[in-house]
Amino acid sequence: MPEGHTIHRLARLLNGSLAGKPVRASSPQGRFADGAERLDGLTLLGADAWGKYLFCNFDSGEVLHVHLGLIGKFRARKAPIPDPVGAVRLRLQNGAIAWDLSGPTRCEIISPIEQEQIWSRLGADPLRSDADVAAARDKFTHSKRAVGALVLDQSVVAGIGNVYRAELLFLCGIHPARPANSLTEEEFAQLWSETVRLLRLGERMGRIVTTDPAEIGATRSRMKAEERLYAYHRQICKRCGSGIEVLKIGGRPIWYCPSCQP
Ligand SMILES: [Zn+2]
């Protein structure tokens, strides 16, 4: 499931392989034929991510806005570039590589002003150097909502999805139903720094790993899928062995350990 780390990784890879040169754009599936036609032949100036939103800026001023949603994928196909497989909404390519977008919830061309409007609605992104941490802390200080709801609210912190939410609150020992304004300054600071650390790690690895290699006895890249998370979607806490419990907070289930997160 794509969370902020996936989108930032995508932006980095798109910049490395497509930016600075004209790209060919097409919509093999046909649903984005008009948009692809507008982008075809333009030079990609750069891709940028904010939370779970991806923006590709072209030299014409047009901005491609993509949101992968729960099942969207943006996959690289290296030369010799194969024919598109499945329902590919958009293919961006040069001679060396093609990027195939399938199943996004959003794929549209917007203006720079509309891009600014989307940004202004999004909260601090832990993976951006311009993240407004003070604004995020303020929203916590002034909210009685459950911390589990605030962490998932993209207008407060942009980029955390359901997996990172459960794991971050686990690592910080915070019960997900606690009111956000009950967090101490130290707790918020730890929550923020853990978020930055884990999302950066996920961006580098291309997958979510939150467990400590020393605790598991394996490097992160050698861990089995079952060893990569402490609480999310588990029955038993990976750290203490207690039974994991589930609550519905912020509209989605959150798994937590009642012993590690009293
Ligand atoms: Zn536990």
How would you sum up this structure, described in words?
There is one protein chain. The protein has 262 residues and is α+β, with helices and mostly antiparallel strands. It folds into two domains: 4-121, N-terminal domain of MutM-like DNA repair proteins (Alpha-Beta Barrel); 133-256, Helicase, Ruva Protein, domain 3 (Orthogonal Bundle). It has helices at residues 4-18, 33-39, 112-121, 133-141, 147-152, 162-171, 185-205, 213-216; strands at 24-26, 44-50, 53-58, 63-67, 73-78, 88-93, 97-102, 106-110, 245-249, 252-256. The longest helix has 21 residues, at 185-205. The radius of gyration is 20 Å and the shape is globular. It binds zinc ion. Zinc ion is lined by residues 237, 239-240, 242, 257, 259-260.
